[in-house]
Amino acid sequence: MKEKFQQKTWFWKRRTRLYLESEDLKGGLNKIKGSVFAVILGLLIGVIVILATGNNPITYFHYLLFFAFSSYGYNNWDTTLVWWTIFIVAGLALLVSFKSGMFNIGVTGQMLAAGAVVIAIGVRYDLKQPLAIFVAFIAGILAAMLVAIVTIALKVLFNIHEVVTSILLNWTIWYLIKWIFTTSGDLYNDGSGTSAPIHESMNLAIGGYKFILPLIIALLLVIFVWFIFKKTTLGYKVKTVGLNPFAADYAGISRKKYAFTAFVISGALAGVMAVIYYVGMNPSLNFASDDLPTIGFDGISVALVGQINAFGIVGAALLWGVIKSGGPIGSVGLNIPASLSDVIFGVIIYSAACAVLLAKFEPFKASIRFLNVNFTKARTQYYQHLSNIFKGWRNIFQVRRKNNKAIRDLKKIIRNTTDKQTKAIKKQELYDLLITKKENVQVAKVQVQQERKALKNFYRQEYQKIWTTGTIGINHQAINAKKILYGQSLDNYITAKMIYEENIHKIKASYRSNWIELKQHRETETNIFNQQFLALINNENQQLATIEKTRKEQLLNYKQTKKAKNSNDPNGFIGTNINENQTSQVTKANKKDEENN
């Protein structure tokens, strides 16, 4: 039992270590980095706008966070958490449609339909708790699904784009609801121009707090959506249809069926969001002006900033909830337009669209590269490349200005010349001059591109020196050696385990009647496998000890060499390479260790 537990522990430790160093995890972290930079860029633009109004941005963000999470006057933090749940569900609704390759921009119309049904039930029927909430959710989900079915049916049956039908349905549903409510005496309040108030029983509050039930529902939906796309064949087929419809057809997956399913699920989530909003946040419809609610459109940005990931949407929705709740109140204290929060939202959305580019931004590596270049003897070459690029652009500008002046003069002469022969000659000269200008500009551009490539190669070389020489280089080589060793050890373990299980299967098939002989053979195979496993662990530990010993020796030699060099040359530059003797010693040591292994 102890040996089996030791095998499982060793196996999962190696798998975990390899996953933490895998490209899949790095890709996920890059997506998170792109979203974080998008949010930071949006906040920086907000800071610039606030400074332009003559206010202090620190004060504004202090007011925003204070009012979003304060209990001053009333529980505003409760409202913030309700907004958080609303944006979580809105983002999930868009996530499901994005995964299927569809763009459900009609979440607003689906939300209006669900909200109208829920408010009508709340006005006309005084149901008891919890029946009122149960009926509200069922009715809201069915109403939103019905609107989604109309949109996706037109797409599946007649190939009408879902964006067009969704946008048109948004306004159609709004005017239909407005007509129904305004012509129904019990549903419309003439004095305020809004829908009639709903009964007190239609309430999401638990213990005086509105956020508890919506937050539980939102988190359960997050887990539900994650489970569908991560652990079920339905999610896999929906993602296949969204990523490559032609590959889905080739694999026998029905595009229409799974696009229809995903869109209906998206509509159902929009219905849940509508119930939370109209029952827990704003239990009325305002018919005084023809304005659509923006929450459905905000869900698009929440899904994009959350990198179309169920758990990423949770963080993005919290940011939206905080700004939505505290932004307008914080703007009042500084006499800043309440639409500033919309400006921040807009910049974050545009930045999220460029999250792939922002994910490639590596400030830490760029700073190391810049410092390494500027504190070594190669900085002269670095500045020379920059100077050549600047000269190349200046040359392009001068060529264009010179040729443009000559072209203008020739055109003026052509306009003022009446002689046809002279005009023909000048036109030919103008044509030749245009060709010459184009060629000269092209040559100058090629020179600039060559200098930029040279600078890029120079960067790469200088950056590579950091990871091949000095303390960082030695540690980097040791880490790579350990990664290779872990991968080889895991492959050997899996191979031995497969051979062991195959032998056990053969023994069971051949000697099913002879249990004593089966037991002896099984014990023999188990002992052989355990011996191989122990030998594998001992071999790996020896190799790890060798790698660590080599690393320490290289570091010691490097430090001694550097100390001796600093004592002989106190004015030397920081970041120089290891000398040739030390490099040859390290190479010989590495070869000797490889021969020993």
Can you tell me about this structure?
It is a single chain. With 597 residues, the protein is mainly α. It folds into three domains: 233 residues, no CATH class; 87 residues; 127 residues, no CATH class. Helices cover 81% and strands 1% of the residues. It has 21 helices and two strands. Strands 1-2 form a two-stranded antiparallel ribbon. A hairpin with a 4-residue loop joins β1 and β2. The protein is extended and about 90 Å long. About 2% of the residues have low confidence.
| Spans where pLDDT lies below 50 across 5 or more residues | 572-583
Ends distance: 32 Å
Spatial sequence of strands, sheet with the most strands? 1-2
Mean pLDDT, nearest integer?
80
Brief account:
With 597 residues, the chain is mainly α. It contains 21 helices and two strands. It has a two-stranded antiparallel sheet with strand order 1-2.
Write the layout of secondary structure elements.
Elements: H1 2-20, H2 23-52, H3 57-68, H4 76-99, H5 107-124, H6 131-158, H7 162-183, E1 188-189, E2 194-195, H8 212-231, H9 233-243, H10 245-250, H11 255-280, H12 295-305, H13 310-333, H14 340-353, H15 355-359, H16 363-374, H17 379-416, H18 420-468, H19 470-510, H20 515-568, H21 580-596
Antiparallel strand pairs: 1-2
Helix pairs in contact: 1-19, 2-14, 3-13, 4-8, 4-11, 4-12, 4-13, 5-6, 5-7, 5-11, 5-12, 6-7, 6-11, 8-9, 9-11, 12-13, 12-14, 16-18, 17-18, 18-19, 19-20, 20-21
Task: Describe the structure using short key phrases.
2 strands; 597 residues; mainly alpha; two-stranded antiparallel sheet; single chain; 3 domains; extended
